[in-house]
Design a protein that fits this description.
Length: 312
């Protein structure tokens, strides 16, 4: 089984208007709500690609019930811990006249100590999985140490752990040696404590983390592609040029694409190609809509992979 863990999921309320104007009534052209959050997105893309999985984390209130219901309607099994606070609602505004996109992310509920322990106890009882994807922000009331704790619990079952977080949460998570991390270039720069000016700098920073015991480091670089660094291997996969509708969820979709390759037993090169194809497929969709299988399959053969080891 594949598990995804999102400690601070959200309802993404997406609104389309012509243009935001000051001091007048801005008329909404269209609005939709989606279940969101980093690993929730991973769950959705995996399901779109035909991989069953279970979504875990915290939900609360009416927004939490709606989030669970939306995932249920998409065929995704959930086992969230219910909390006393209200699941957050993010607001994403698309200006159809300018193509601009504004995102307002809420903080989310505060998790009480007993609710946190309920989640930990759930993790201790959880049947072993093949892959566990952990991602997203930390809710109020929870220390960044939580990711280190979760990874240690998961690794007792020999599951492969994919971690997609940033800042102090990433620093703490790395201490537990997840199998895969996926920072973007800005998050990797923060982790390295210096500006990464070119590809060689990015490779060097990723290799340093790999030497600390993280098996695979994926670095997303937008239209420049995704870098993979592992023991004795380093590849760069670049997507084809596409008409980008939205970048929301593209990084999460890349994580799902990589996991899709892992569960199919593909080698790292093919897993990386799948990661780039899934992320690119998501950019073709408006709002917070995510990678669809037909787009993914069409893009896979267009991804260009370079073995950087051969260039050194």
């Amino acid at each position: 089984m594949i598990y995804t863990i999102t400690l601070n999921p959200a309802l993404d309320r997406t609104i389309w208007i012509q243009k935001v104007r000051d001091d007048v009534s801005n008329r909404i052209l269209e609005e939709k709500s989606f279940a969101g959050g980093k690993s929730v997105d991973v769950s959705k893309v995996l399901k779109n690609l035909g991989v069953d999985n279970i979504a875990l984390g915290f939900v609360g209130g009416f927004a939490g019930r709606e989030l669970e219901g939306r995932l249920l309607n998409e065929g995704i099994e959930t086992d969230f811990v219910r909390v006393s606070g209200e699941t957050r609602t993010n607001i994403i505004i698309h200006e159809t006249g300018t193509g601009k996109q504004l995102a307002f992310n809420a903080r989310g509920p505060e998790i009480k100590p007993d609710e946190l322990m309920q989640f930990i106890e759930q993790m201790e009882r959880l049947p072993c999985g093949e892959v566990v994807a952990i991602g997203g922000s930390i809710p109020l009331g929870v220390s960044p140490e939580i990711y280190r704790k979760i990874i240690n619990l998961v690794k007792r079952c020999q599951a492969r752990v994919v971690l997609d977080v940033d800042g102090e949460a990433l620093r703490q998570g790395i201490k537990a040696l997840p199998n895969v991390i996926k920072p973007n270039i800005h998050e990797l720069s923060e982790l390295a404590g210096r500006e990464l000016k070119d590809l060689d700098d990015v490779v060097s920073a990723a290799r340093s983390i790999n030497r600390q015991g993280v098996e695979i480091v994926l670095v997303s670089m937008g239209a420049k592609g995704i870098l993979l660094v592992s023991d004795g291997q380093q590849y760069l996969a670049v997507p084809p040029n596409v008409n980008v509708e939205s970048t929301i969820g593209a990084g999460d979709s890349s994580v799902a694409g990589f996991i899709f390759g892992l569960v199919q037993g593909k080698d790292l090169k093919q897993c990386l190609i799948y990661a780039v194809a899934a992320g690119t497929a998501t950019t073709l969709r408006q709002g917070t809509a995510l990678c669809q299988k037909d787009d993914f399959e069409r893009i896979v053969p267009q991804v260009v992979l370079t073995d950087l080891q051969e260039k050194t």
